């Protein structure tokens, strides 16, 4: 009997000890999250004052869209970002500085990106295309080439359906295609980590990886500030969710046969099956369609900027 009691006492102590350990971990985790949340919210308020303005704001429907209009030349390029780019202008800036030597380059920061405002408009492909066109109208542009990274390819092929008389061509930087699979993304966990300030903590530990830019960049600090500001952008989040409709709605769309299209495609895009083949299909039946496969990952304009600028300039002649 005594032995049984001793065994029960031992089990009870082990259970109690395990329970206390779990409780201690939970309390520590809650404490960590309270600290990261508080630091994140306080930092956001102070960082807003340190963001340096650039470009100009245009009234577009229910908000203001920030654009940067630089350079001169016979050809005008409307430059569009990939989904979730905190500051399109600063992300593209090294490439813009080269392109503007021969072209007029207008960088568009969609609602919720860069220095643009939020919007209550649905982030459907139709609305986003309409907003890009409103910018073109505001600048009195009648002819221009769309150029863009990633999801800009989906908007560009839709734009070509609505405004083929204005759109002189498209240059895609590892751009999305209407035929690529889109599994959808559940942002619940990501939203929690953003709001709780965990992502801020991770970026602080490894800022170059988290921001996709080296500390040597003159725009490093501003990109960091804008990343923190737009990390929880409502318009960005709504756009990402809306892609579950935008991709199916765009299936089968192609560029007009006489529209010039140049596609730069990353050779190690491992996230998409048949990535190269989908882009080859986009240009194969065009009168002036070209595809250039480049070594590198998705952000080719970071690693292959010189080639992209040269080939784009030659293509637009």
TrEMBL record:
Parts of the chain that traverse the membrane: 21-40
Gene Ontology cellular component list: membrane
Alphabetically ordered keywords of this record: Hydrolase, Membrane, Transmembrane, Transmembrane helix
Residues in AB hydrolase-1 domain copies: 76-183
GO terms assigned for molecular function: hydrolase activity
Domain of life: Bacteria
InterPro entries: AB_hydrolase_1, AB_hydrolase_fold, AB_hydrolase_sf
Taxon lineage: Bacteria, Bacillati, Bacillota, Bacilli, Lactobacillales
One Pfam family it belongs to: Abhydrolase_1
Name this polypeptide is given: Alpha/beta hydrolase
């Amino acid at each position: 009997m005594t032995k049984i009691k001793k065994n029960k006492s031992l089990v009870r102590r082990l259970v109690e000890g395990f329970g206390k350990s779990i409780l201690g971990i939970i309390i520590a985790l809650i404490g960590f999250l309270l600290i990261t949340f508080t630091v994140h919210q306080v930092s956001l308020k102070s960082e807003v004052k340190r963001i340096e303005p650039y470009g100009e704001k245009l009234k577009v429907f229910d908000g203001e869209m920030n654009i940067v209009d630089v350079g001169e030349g016979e050809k005008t390029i409307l430059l569009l970002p990939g989904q979730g780019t905190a500051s399109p202008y600063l992300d593209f800036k090294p490439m813009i500085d080269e392109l503007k030597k021969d072209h007029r380059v207008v960088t568009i920061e969609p609602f919720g990106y860069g220095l643009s405002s939020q919007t209550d408009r649905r982030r459907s492909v139709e609305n986003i295309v309409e907003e890009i066109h409103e910018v073109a109208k505001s600048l009195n542009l009648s002819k221009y080439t769309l150029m863009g990274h990633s999801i800009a390819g989906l908007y560009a092929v839709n734009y070509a359906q609505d405004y083929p008389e204005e759109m002189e061509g498209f240059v895609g930087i590892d751009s999305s295609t209407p035929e690529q699979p889109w599994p959808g993304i559940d942002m619940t966990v990501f939203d929690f980590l953003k709001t709780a300030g965990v992502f801020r903590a991770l970026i602080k530990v490894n800022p170059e990886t988290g921001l996709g830019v080296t500390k040597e960049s003159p725009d490093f600090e501003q990109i960091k500030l804008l990343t923190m500001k737009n990390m929880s952008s409502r318009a960005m989040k709504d756009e990402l969710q809306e892609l579950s409709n935008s991709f199916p709605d765009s299936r089968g769309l192609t560029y007009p046969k006489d529209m010039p299209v140049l596609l730069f495609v990353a050779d190690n895009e491992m996230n998409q099956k048949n990535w190269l083949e989908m882009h080859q299909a986009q240009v194969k039946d065009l009168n002036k369609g070209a595809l250039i496969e480049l070594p590198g990952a998705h952000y080719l304009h970071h690693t292959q900027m010189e080639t992209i600028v040269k080939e784009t300039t030659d293509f637009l002649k």
